[in-house]
Structure formats: C-alpha cells, structure tokens
Amino acid sequence: MKNIRNFCIIAHIDHGKSTLADRLLDMTHTLDDRDKQDQVLDSMDLERERGITIKSHAIRMEYEHEGEKYFLNLIDTPGHVDFSYEVSRSIAACEGALLIVDATQGIQAQTISNLYLAIEHNLEIIPVLNKVDLEAAMIDEVKDQIVDLIGCDHEDILEASGKTGYGVEAILDRIIKKIPHPVGDPDAPLQALIFDSVFNSYRGIVAYFRIMNGTLEKGDFVKFMATRKEYNADEIGILRLGMEPRKKLSAGEVGYIISGIKTSKEVKVGDTITHVERPSDKAIAGFENVKPMVFAGIYPVDADDYEDLRASIEKLQLNDASLSFEPESSAALGFGFRCGFLGLLHMEIVQERLDREFDMDVITTVPNVSFNVINNKGEVIEVHNPSGMPEQKFIDYIEEPVIVAQIISKSEYVGSIMNLCIDKRGVLKNQVYLSSDRVEVTFEMPLSEIVFDFYDKLKSISKGYASFDYYQKGYQTAKLIKLDILLNGETVDALSTLTHIDNAYNFGRRMCEKLKELIPRQQFDVAIQAAIGSKIIARETVKALRKDVTAKCYGGDITRKRKLLEKQKKGKKRMRQVGNVEVPQSAFLAVLKLD
Questions:
Q1: What CA–CA distance (Å, rounded) separates 563 from 570?
Q2: How far is residue 89's CA from residue 63's CA, in Å, rounded to a whole number?
Q3: Is CB count within 10 Å lower at the N or C end of the chain?
Q4: DSSP codes of every residue in 496-551
Q5: Exposed (0-12), middle (13-18) or buried (19+): which is 12, by Cβ within 10 Å?
Q6: Chain centre distance of CA 422
Q7: Which of 122, 130, 230 is nearest to 180 (CA)?
Q8: Residue 293: its pLDDT value, please?
Q9: In this structure, are residues 209 and 197 in contact, taking their beta carbons and an 8 Å threshold?
Q10: Cα–Cα distance between 35 and 26 in angstroms, integer?
Q11: pTM for this one?
C-alpha cells in the first residue's frame, strides 16, 4: 500500500487540466503511441469541442522513482458548478489534489469552491501554475493569489505547461513525496466508495470504486448499501486506458466492478459496497441522492417520435444518472417528458447529446425550478411545472429555492455586477478583495432568477472576466404568480411561467412583443395576450395578411367599397374561428433570451 498514490485534479473550466493529464500519461508511458490523442481522458466529442470535462474519469499510471515502482491513480473531475456533487465524491476517494491555476487568468470561483471541498476532506494540496509558456502569463501576480488563498510559500508552487510538457516531472516527484499513501485495513470488513459509473451495452453498468478497508475478490457476493441490492462480482479489475481484470483488489486501490446491473438507478454515486456475509457496520459518510435543480419539458417535434424519445432518454440516463424524467402532456405540444437537470449546462448537454447520439429533434420549454406551494389546508405541494400550480385562491404562500452565489471578477466591473444581482432580487452578503484588482462578491439570490440568462449577462458585463459559482441554501417565502400567454384567447401552456409579482407586467409585455415578431402572419388577426389569472396585462396583435378587394372599385360611391370590406371582414372572422396558430420553435427559445 505504501507505493500507491490516489490524487485528483481541481481546476476551473478551461484551465488546462485535461491537457496536463495527457502529459502525465505521456511521462509515465501509460499510453502507446497509437492511442495518443489530445484530451485522452475526455471520451465524448462534446467534451473535446467545448473543452470541458463532463464525466469524471480514472486511470492508473505506473512510475519509477528512485528505483522504486509507484502506482498513481488519477481521478479526473469535472470543473463546472453543475457537477459539484460528483466532484465531492471523487475528492473523497483521494488523499491529495493538484490545484491547477491558469497563469493567464488567475484564480476563479469554481477553483475556490472545489478547493474548499478538498480541504474539508483533509487532502494534501499541490499548487500548480499552468500555461507559464504563454506571453500573457502573469506568473508573479497569480502566485501571490495562490499564496493568499492556501497559505503556502512561493517555492511550493510548481510551474508547468500542459502544452509543452515543461515541469511535468517535478509534478510527479512532488506527488510521490507530498501526497500520503492510503491508509486502510485489508483484513477489516469491505468498504468501497463508488465515485462514478458508466454504461456498457454488453456488460451492463460498470461501477468505479476506491476501497477504503477490506479486500474484494472476483466472484464475491457483495451488497450496495444505499440501494440494498445484492450482486455477484462477475469481474473486478484496475483502470488503465481500458479495463484490466484482476483476481483481487485490496484497501487503497482504485478499480471497477461489473455485476450485470441493467438499470442505472441501482448504482448511485457515493454509495458503499460491502460483503453480504461479513458486512461493514456503517456506510462511508457523505452519500446523498442527487437532487435536480432545474426542470424543463422536452417534447418531440414530431408526435410520432414519442416512443423513440423515451428510449433515447432512458439510454442517456444509463450514462448520466443525475438526469431524471417523467412523462407529461401539454395542450400545445402533445406528449413529452418533464426532465430534471443539475443546472443549465447540464440541460444544454442533455439536449446536445439527444441530438447527436440519438438524432432526436426536440422542443424544450422554458426551464424553471421546483417550488413548494403551501395550500390553505397547510399541505406542501412540490411544483416543477407552472401548469401544475393550484389556483391562486387555494394557495396560502409559495416558497422558492435560494442560492448563495460567489462571483469573482476584476474590481472595475463590481458596480455593474452588483446592479445585475440586485435586479435579480439578490441581497449582498459579503465583498472581499482577493488582491488589488480582484474582488469576490457573495450574494444570496433566488435560483429562479439565474435560470434564464444570468450567466450570459454576467459574462457580457464583465467582458468574460467574471467567474460564477453557487450552492443551494434552502427555501424562502416569495410573492410568485403564474403568468399565462394566450393566443386568440387560448392558453399556450408551454409558454406559461412562474414569475415574481414585481417582474410580471414587464415580463408579460416583453414576451408579447417578442412573440409578435416571431409568429408568422395568418389570414386573420392573431391576438397575443399575457394574463395573470383572468386579468389581461399586455396585448399585441399580429395583423392579418389582406388582399386589396377594393382594387376593382375605382371611383364611384364609398358604400360599394364598404360593402366589399364588410364581406371580407366576415370571411376573416369565420377563418379565425376555424384557424389555429402554429407556434414556431424559435418562439419557445426566444423566451430564454428576452433581452
């Protein structure tokens, strides 16, 4: 056990952790030349294109140092705020972490929140300054920021470049010297932490684990403690670039287990594996069921594709256990699914994967968060969808989820960032200057306000310099009302939203104006209205296309023209009764980008 090192990499999006991981794999000769490619641990095309890690990956490297052979288990983690629970489980499986900071960008919000997670788990932190070969690198400045943040010395910070491979050997030496080897009792009852799972269409679900105590052998009868399911360990082994079967794994090692599990709900990240015959008396702390934060309806563009969409979402759920869905129907869009996501990036990724991997054309409704509605009888109803709201007269009060948001930016943008947060009903909690020109502001704000376009606005206000991170704090009472959009007097339920009473009039008016631009003109007038209950608060009209029926009446009496126009008017009225208005896909998307 003394020659094993388990470590993970902590960094903000795009600070170069996947590239640096490639160099570590090169140095330890884990890859053959034919397997070499950029960002080898990012297995999805989507991850490579966007330069983000979506799933955490693990890989084992062997490295010879001063005549001894060491086994290094690298657990790569996602960098985005939506996946912070997965990051916390990966961190729990390690003894050390590489803190990677981009020398051109400095410390950003996600780095700080993941760093605090690592410090809570008592990990040994190795600070690494990446991208030092770039001309824009501010080496001394960023080093000062790191020293302020974790209280190390300037000499402790390693300089490296993922692109050129400079400094990688020093990182490997530091990992071996500084990160403690795992401690655990191989003879104790088995305790293994699941930190990730992937779906293999031939073998079922493959769970990745780290053994804390005990020993696991091939063929053992094991039990998953959170789901209370029991299985045979058909195959166990270690993770190289592929999977390498082994007969036996003991405390401190990282590996995989295949036991023919077919449904993703049976394997939960953070669960504990133990033996059925000699079980461990307690599970590893920190397990929680992942709760979706943002909900949206996903509907097939063509109603006949409903069953295909169900099959696609189910397959996607096998690879992404944090996606939840249930069937729902909408008068405007037909049959579809109500899906729960961890956040907005997660929602975008699911849409993109449905399109790429399963070739599904879908319409996504306005995303919203879940509210607690307390009715007159004192019962609590959880509402994920505006159409599920009880009538106003039955509601006592509504609670909405609140988050604590940390924003790090250059000090010159602080004023406009504060204005943005206050417009979104935020309350300033704290403001700290990390250095002379970098400031961290902490706001408490409703989650529903950041679901729309908050992130885009923040990026444009700060010219891309602000970084943003949040965690959920609980619920608070809010004055929310349901805003309906009516076309020709009929409610389009897919455009309904729950909004704060102060924003309702403004939002309703802007929505009507936007829809007026997007809904194509018909042969009859189309009335677009925004309503709260039975009260109309805004209206726009899409004018009818009309033919000049009076063209043949040159000269003559006005009554002849009038008669023709009246006749046309009656025809338009009759048309309007039978005509229905098609709402284009762009109208559903426009609601997300109202500004």
A1: 11
A2: 26
A3: C
A4: -EEEETTTHHHHHHHHHHHHHHHSPP-SS-EEEEEEETTEEEEEEEEPPP---GGG
A5: buried
A6: 24
A7: 122
A8: 75
A9: no
A10: 11
A11: 0.70
Rounded distance between C-alpha atoms, residue 287 and residue 85, angstroms: 9
Residue 44 CA to residue 319 CA, distance in Å, equals 11
Q: Which amino acid is at 165?
A: G
Task: Say if residues 39 and 2 touch (Cβ distance below 8 Å).
Answer: no
The full 3-state SS of 253-307, as one line of letters, equals: CEEEEEEEECCHHHCCCCCEEEECCCCCCCCCCCCCCCCCCEEEEEEECCHHHHH
State the pLDDT at residue 122.
82
Helices 454-461 and 414-423 pack at an angle, to 10 degrees, of 160
pLDDT at 46: 58
Identify the pLDDT of residue 575: 65
Nearest to 336, CA basis, from 298, 372, 380: 298
| Regions of the chain where pLDDT drops below 70 | 30-57, 79-84, 109-110, 319, 321, 331-332, 452-453, 464-465, 575-595
Length of the chain: 595
Q: Of 369, 351, 589, which is closest to residue 476 (Cα–Cα)?
A: 369
Euclidean distance between CA atoms 276 and 415, whole angstroms = 59
pLDDT at residue 471 in the model = 73
The rounded distance, in Å, linking the Cα atoms of 458 and 467 is 9
Q: Which domains does the chain show, CATH number per domain?
A: 4-178 (3.40.50.300), 191-275 (2.40.30.10), 294-338+345-362 (3.30.70.870), 372-478 (3.30.70.240), 483-593 (3.30.70.2570)
- The residue to which tokens 């900071």 are assigned: 101
* Alpha carbons 237 and 208: distance in angstroms, whole number: 10
- The string of DSSP letters for 213-224 reads ESEEETT-EEEE
pLDDT, residue 577, reads 60
pLDDT value of position 55 = 60
CB 55 within 8 A of CB 42: no
State both tokens at 330.
């909408």
Residues near 367 by Cβ (< 8 Å), separated by ≥ 6? 294, 295, 296, 341, 344, 347, 451, 452, 592
Q: Is 31 helix (H, G, I), strand (E, B) or coil?
A: coil
327's tokens: 């069937």
